[in-house]
Amino acid sequence: MAIIIKKVSSKKELKTFIRFNYELYRGNPYSVPDLYDDMLGTFSPKRNAAFEFCEADYFLAYRNSHVVGRVAAIINRRANETWNKKEVRFGWIDFIDDFEVSEALLDTVAQWGKERGMEAMVGPLGFTDMDAEGMLIEGFDQLSTMSTIYNFPYYPQHMEKLGFEKETDWVEFKLTVPDKLPEKFVRISEIILQKYKLKIKKLKRKEIKEKNYGQKIFDLINEAYAPLYGYSKMTQGQINQYIKMYLPLIDMRMVSLVEDENGELVAVGISMPSLSEALQKAKGKMLPFGWYHLMKALFFKKPQVLDLLLVGVKPEYQSKGVNALLFYDLVPVYQQMGFKYGESNPELEVNKKVQSQWNAFESVLHKRRRAYKKML
Fold first, then answer.
1. Looking at the whole model, is its pTM more than 0.85?
2. pLDDT tens, 160-170?
3. Residue 374 domain-assigned?
4. Does residue 220 belong to any structural domain of this protein?
5. DSSP 167
6. Three-class DSSP category at 147
7. CB pairs under 8 A, 24+ apart, for 136-142?
8. Are residues 228 and 318 in the same domain?
């Protein structure tokens, strides 16, 4: 039977779109499901501030009335203007192992993009860099994280057969928390503190609002991430959204700030306990007991693994070893809290500055993911 592609046009169909991923990866030991309510917010123009500059439609593939695939078609006008491109993004793509299905989904995105004047198709990408991006091409036997995409090994095979080529890769590292910081690392960090007249600040929760540190953090991320592939500067609406959604969940012990002698923020590192296993147990639902698994991982019985969520350094300090100060502060915290390993989460393979910071630690490159591109 032929594949039928249908645009999502109702709440019921959007629910089907979200839940197809849960069904396709049901019982998979490496896939980490998103929370259903979070996905509803992501796909809602009323709740996701990225729609200030993005346009999107969502599509489902059917065969014999059964859903066999899904994909989102997205245009990030802000990114296109920043990088002088006319690209349509495909994101949240999932499909059964059938080339007819993957081809129909991607052809739909291509046509959707052409109708809007686009000249190329790239992905998997979300609305912005704050969404999961990149198709897994190595590390299929590694547990995913809450910030990344897991997909079956046949996905990249489909992409290559359909004529897509590599656009860029991200790499991920598994880091071992050392029993003790290397003396050389400590010595260098203390020299950097003195040389540049810097200080490490531990953030208090009330300061996020009272002293505007939430705004300062995301302003720094905007500045630090500006040169990175496909990045579109966060709007004030997005910043407000992220401050409200994410910062209340963060244990302030796992946040490190570096300031200059004038109190200006020059570096930030934000980490948190891994929620991968908790999200697997929750199965995408907060109720009836999903909340319990998440709260347990966050506040009570923390896992042995932590996630590095955001690491940003002001551009003029990026070649001065300032990022080492973040881990000079955080590693003793990780030791005290009982963490054994850390997940770097995706880093652009060309971003050697970031990857060099792991030289002081035992680390393994254990996942690689790719954005593909095809001219329309």
1. yes
2. 999 999 999 99
3. no
4. yes
5. E
6. coil
7. 136/367, 136/368, 136/369, 137/169, 137/368, 137/369, 137/370, 138/367, 138/368, 139/172, 139/366, 139/367, 139/368, 140/30, 141/30, 142/30, 142/174, 142/366, 142/367
8. yes
